[in-house]
Amino acid sequence: QVQLVESGGGLVQAGGSLRLSCAASGRAFSKKNMAWFRQAPGKEREFVAAIRWSTEWTYYGDSVKGRFTISRDNAKNTVYLQMNSLKPADTAGYYCAAGDIDGTYRTSREYNYWGQGTQVTVSS
Length: 124
Description:
By secondary structure, the chain is mainly beta. Helices cover 0% and strands 49% of the residues. It has no helices and 11 strands. The strands form 2 sheets. Strands 2, 4, 5, 6, 9, 10 and 11 form a 7-stranded mixed sheet that branches. The protein has a 4-stranded antiparallel sheet with strand order 1-3-8-7, with no helix packed on it.
């Protein structure tokens, strides 16, 4: 069992930066693939970034590639999302997810643990 708690969201101006954190409980964290998804009102949940547990290879959605960086600290049971050059289109609730499936790492069905989310609002 893994419980996830996100933090670090807030209001930022376009071009600014934020770092989201996702703290996980449970000793199995180091063996979980971790990901961030986001969802804006009236839109479908969108893949943002993922990091594999075994190789720490990373994957990014096209809309954030080159601006966002996912990382993890297994000693702290925490995964991070560094977001730079933020745009109003990045405004959404951001959700941390954990899972065991080695697939595309980009679909929500590959993750079976989810946090409650943290809101990111980017003003123009």
